[in-house]
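Continuing the batch. This is chain 6 of the set; chains 1 through 5 are on the previous pages. Same settings as before, nothing changed between runs. Recording input and output for traceability.
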Amino acid sequence: MARAGALAVGGSIWAAACFLFYVPGHIEYQLFLVTMLLGAVVSGLVTLAVYLPAYLAFVTPFVAATAIRYGLEGDPLHWGIALAAIVTFFLFINFARYIQRTFEESIRLRMTLAERNRELAERNREVERANLAKSRFLAVASHDLRQPLHALNLFAAQLRDQTDPADRARLVARIDAAIDSMNELFNALLDISKLDAGVLAPDVAEFPVGHLLDRIETTFAAAAREKGLRLRVLPSRAWVRTDAILLERILLNLVSNAIRYTSRGGVLVGCRRRGDSVRIEVWDSGIGLAEDQHRSIFGEFYQVDAPAPGGRAGLGLGLSIVDGLCRLLGHPIDLASRPGKGSRFAVSVPWGPARERPVEATVTLDAIANPARDKLVVVVDDDALVLDGMRGLLQGWGCRVVTADSSDAALAGLADHQEGPDLVISDYFLANGTTGVEVIERLRGAFGDAIPAFLISGDTTSERMREADARGLPLLHKPVSPMALRSMVNRLLRAAR
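Output for chain 6:
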């Protein structure tokens, strides 16, 4: 382009010299020069107008030479030719600007299209990677579900024929461990679903981080001992301002991963004060991570190649949950790690001012009372096994229970009691296309009271979560542990007092 521009400028200067020193009186020569002027202006418009400075450098000598030479002739005809050259010059300059704008716009559109194509190609690659990751995840999840289910079948068969109390207690403990393993998977999937659905609302408050660290130590002390690891949790008197439950979930995932991928040495959990923040750090002497994995491990379904010898591979969801919760709470998370040298995860939490908590001298009767005792609870589900299990569990807590598979059956069962229920528990999806939301609304309408109620569902899609949240109904996801179920029952019954 530079060479072509230089040749064009040089040619235009030579042609301008011809105009300035043409032989007067030869009309043919003058017509030739004017024709050459128009040809140069038009051809330059086609070839050089995409870059206006080049076009001006090419055309200006022609027009200037023509206007000067003909203007010096002193007669109206030549003055008209000079004026026409100037007018033509400005007209073609406008055309050149239009061509330049059109060319620039076409280049801009082409670059935009190329950028969109690159983005689309990258998204396609991301989708392919996600599909591959999910396929791997489904294979791991299927294995992790089949293992405890297989173990449950074996333990249940042994328990059926076992008469020795010690052996029965051992089998019950093994069954509990198998159930805990399945719950770990389902809880991880549920956490991901809640984050994707955007239904988690942080409950921010000031609290002493030491209480949280004590629970972490209690939770993982046994697991660390079983692997021959040293778990050290440093005490702290710092207070932080955040959601205590969500922060605990973050630390549970971090410490669980640290123990899983550490075969010797130990895990250290502690706090550091950094300005207006408290850094909660989790150190381990595990396998460590290469630098190119530092961001990948926070993606869904990403799995480190292998856990510590004898350990069980993770599902690739724990750190994704940590990343999502940290984003939700606005807590930066930092990672330092080297292969074979261990890892350090640090979560920065806003510092909170310490507050004195009133010390209760005596335990109130309400604190030790069972809020579910003698309460009338309605359970609605279209699965007879679930109804039978819920009836036995609730009656063991001292509840009076009415079980039904529909709102009509529930109302019929309540007629024998001649009173309204204290609590309604309903499955989300019932027979004949009805939902638990409809059942709860009908029972509330029948008794003219905002009866405490909550839903249970195996559907973890964001639509179900948002709908339950919009109706103000708590939603538990199957499988529900007896502890979680009793916690929800007690909370709603206490709130209704």
